[in-house]
Design goal:
The protein is mainly beta. Helix content is 12%, strand content 33%. The strands form two sheets. It has a five-stranded mixed beta sheet with strand order 1-8-5-4-2, with no helix packed on it. The radius of gyration is 25 Å and the shape is elongated.
């Protein structure tokens, strides 16, 4: 009678274990679940007059006092309250025109979850309540103002010069990795 040879299962088990470790590492990198428990608070001051370039000096004489009132440092062009979408989100949004004519989006009292690849988007999409509003903001015109600086606090996002703020009707805290809104605000203009 011949001996039956058993195949070793060690290489197969080692291969499966390696595949599981690689898949777990990739899933952790992609979802970053620890970010949900890490808060990053940013407290930026209201934007003021533009400072002189570094190293430069202003040798012009000071202007004579004027009887006309000075232009305000910033004017609110549009504003709105953030509503929750994929994650609980609150705070206010103000679109400001600065004295030099540039525009800044200001988030005040922001409170949302942290997450991977969060962006601040100006969009032309309508703000919808609930799940209906989670995925609409990348359907139309949108302009990314950059990465969300922190998931809590007050922060400013300067609009690039080529961006016309009149084209946009809403702001979204957008998770670019999963194409979903964490929260959004309809921007209403004063009458």
């Amino acid at each position: 009678m011949g001996r039956v040879r058993r195949k070793s299962t060690r290489p197969v088990a080692a291969g499966l274990l390696l595949a599981a470790v690689v898949l777990t590492g990739a899933a952790l990198y992609w979802f970053q679940p620890w970010a949900l428990w890490q808060d990053e608070t940013v407290q930026e001051a209201l934007p003021g007059p533009t400072a002189l370039p570094a190293g430069g000096s202003d040798s012009r004489p000071a202007p004579a006092p004027s009887r006309t009132p000075a232009a305000p440092e910033q004017v609110t062009v549009a504003s709105g309250k953030l509503i929750s979408h994929e994650h609980a989100t609150s705070g206010t949004v103000r679109l400001l025109r600065l004295a030099d004519g540039s525009h800044v989006v200001r988030l005040e009292g922001l409170d949302t979850s942290n997450g991977p690849d969060l962006r601040v988007w100006l969009t032309d999409a309508p703000v919808k309540e609930g799940r209906a509003g989670w995925h609409v903001f990348d359907d139309g015109v949108h302009e990314s103002l950059g990465k969300l600086k922190g998931n809590k606090g007050d922060q400013n996002y300067r609009l690039p010069q080529h961006v016309d703020p009149a084209r946009f009707t809403s702001l979204a805290i957008w998770c670019d990795r999963f194409d979903v809104s964490f929260g959004a605000a309809e921007l209403t203009r004063p009458a």
